[in-house]
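OP here, attaching both records as promised.
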Amino acid sequence: MERSRNIAGKMKAANQSTVVEFTLLGLSNFPKLRIALFICLLAVYILILTGNLLIMITVQVEPRLQSAMYYFLGRLSFLDLCYASVTIPKILIDFLSKSDTISSGACVTQLFFLHFFAGTEGILLAVMAYDRYVAICNPLRYTSIMNRNVCYWLEAVCWAASFLHSIIQTVLTCQLTFCGPNNIDHFFCDIHPLLVLACSDIFIIEIVFVANSGMISLICSIVLLTSYMRIITTILKTQSGEGMGKTFSTCASHLIVVTLFFGSCVFIYVRPTVAYAADKMVSVFYTIFTPLLNPIIYTLRNKEVKIAIKALLVKKIFPVK
C-alpha cells in the first residue's frame, strides 16, 4: 500500500513526464577528492588491464599452460577485463565532468553488459571448481574428461546461460516507467537503484529479478560446494601432509575469488528492492577489486603461472641479445 502511494505520488508530481537521462550521484559525496580519486582509479584500471592481459597472453602462448585449468583462467581474465571496462571508464569520465549524467539508452546498455559479463564469470567460477574436482579426485582421467572439446562446451554454456540471464534483466528493466526523479544513488546503472526510481508497479518484476539472480546463484553454489566438499574429502583420505598443503594452496586462490565475488553479488541481487548505504561499497568488490585481485592471486599463488610469465617477459618482451 505504501509503495503504491509512493508510485502515485511520483507520477502526479512529475506529471507523467518521461525520463530521458539519469544523474549518477555516487560521486557526489566526494566533490573535493575527485582528482585524487580519478588518479587512484585510473592506476587501478591500468593494473587491471595490464594484469589480465598478461595472463591472457601467457596462457595463449606458453605450451606448459595448455590444460583446462589454464584455459579457464585465460577466459576468467578476459571477463575481468570486460566487465571492469563496463563501469570504470564511465566513472573516470564522471570524476572529471561537472555533469554526472547518462542517457537512458546508455544506462540500459551498461546494465546489460554488466550482468552479461559478471554472470558469465560467476558460472565460469563454478566450472573452474568442477575442473579442480576432476583434477584432484580423478587425476588419471583428467585429460580425457576435461579435453578441449569439453572446455569449449562448458564455456559455451557459461556464455549462453549468462546471456539469457542478462537479457531477462534488461527486457524487464525496459518495461519500467520512469517519470522522475532521475537521480541514481550509485556509481553506475544497476537494477536496484533503477527499481527505486520506477513509477510503475515493480512487484512482479522484482520477484522475477530476485528469482533469476537467485537461480543462478543457487546452481553455482551447489556446484561449488559439492566440488569442494569432494575435493576436501579426497585430500584428507589420500594425501600426505606435504601434498595436502600443496593442493589446498592451489585451491585457496579459487576460494578467495569465489568468496569475494559471490558474497558481494548475493548481498546486492538476491534480496528485495531496498537501498542500503553499503550497496555502493559492496559493489566496488565485484566491479573493481575482484578484477584487480584475480591476476595477483593466480600469479602469486601459482608457481607454473609465475614461471610462464617470467619466461614470456624474458623471451618475448625483453629478449636477451
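Record two, same layout:
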Amino acid sequence: MEGANNSMLTEFILVGLSAHPKLQSIFFVLILCMYLMILLGNGVLISVIIYDAHLHTPMYFFLCNLSFLDICYTSSSVQLILDSFLTVKKVSFSQCMLQMFLSFAMGATECVLLGTMALDRFVAICFPLRYPVIMAKDRYVPMAVGCWAAGLVDSTVQTFLAVQLSFCSNNVIQHFVCEILAVLKLACEDISVNVVSMAGSSLLVLVIPVLAVSVSYIFIVATILKIPSTEGKRKAFSTCSAHFMVVIIFYGTIFFMYTKPKSKTTTDAENQDVFEALISLFYGVMTPMLNPLIYSLRNKDVKSAVQRMMRRKL
C-alpha cells in the first residue's frame, strides 16, 4: 500500500463492542454525553483562567494547558469511538496511524505535564518565599512547552516505528480506536524494536513523572505536617489535593492497564482485549471529564473567579 512501508493492508477494522450489541447504544449515549461535558467543563475552566487576572499564576497556567490537552485528547479519538458503537468501523491505514499518533502524543504529554504540575506544587509549598522567583514566567512557560514537545517527539518515534511494520492478514483491532498496543498485536513480523522503544517511552514519560510526583508529595506532606496551625495545614493541603486526586486516577488507571498479567487462552485473551478497551476508555474519556470538576469543586480561587465573572456579566 502506498504510504505504508511494507504493509499489505489498506484498512483496519475496529470492532469495539460489536460482540455486545445491547451495550453499544448505551455506551454511545454515555460517551457522547461525557464528551459534551468534557468540552463544557474544560472550556469553562480555560475561559475562567484566561478571563480572571487573579488566576494568571504558574499553577493555573499549567491547569489551563491540562484542560486544553484533555479537549484535544478526547477529540482525537471520540469520532472513532462513537462510530464503533454504531457499526463495525473501517478506517484506512493512514487514518489509523494519524489517530494513533495524536492520541499517544496527548497521553504522553499529559503524563509529563502532571509530573511538572507536581514540581510546581512542591516549590509552592516547600519554598513559598522563593516561589515567585523559581517559577517566574520565563521558566514555567518553557516547562509547559517542554511537556508538549516531549509528548510529540515520543509519539513521532513510536508511530514511525509502527508504520514500518508489516500487517499481512489480520486487520481486526479489538478496540474502539487505533490504540498502539492493540495495533502492534496485528503485526506479522518481529516487534522487538517496538517493544524496547515502548519500554523506553514508558520510562521517560511515565515512570520518571510518577517518581517526580511521588518525591514531590513526600516533601510536600512532610512540610505541611510541620505547619503549627490546623488552618495553615488545611490551606496547604487544599492547594495540592485536587492535583493529587487527578494524578491517582490518571496514573493508577494507566499502570493497571499496562502492567497486569496477560491471558494465556484465546477466549480469555479476547475477553481481556474488551476489558482493556473499556479501561482505556475510562482514562481516555472519564479522566478528562473529571479533571475540571475536581479542580473547580475543590478550589476556592476557581469558584471565586467564576462568581466574579458571572457578576460582571449580570
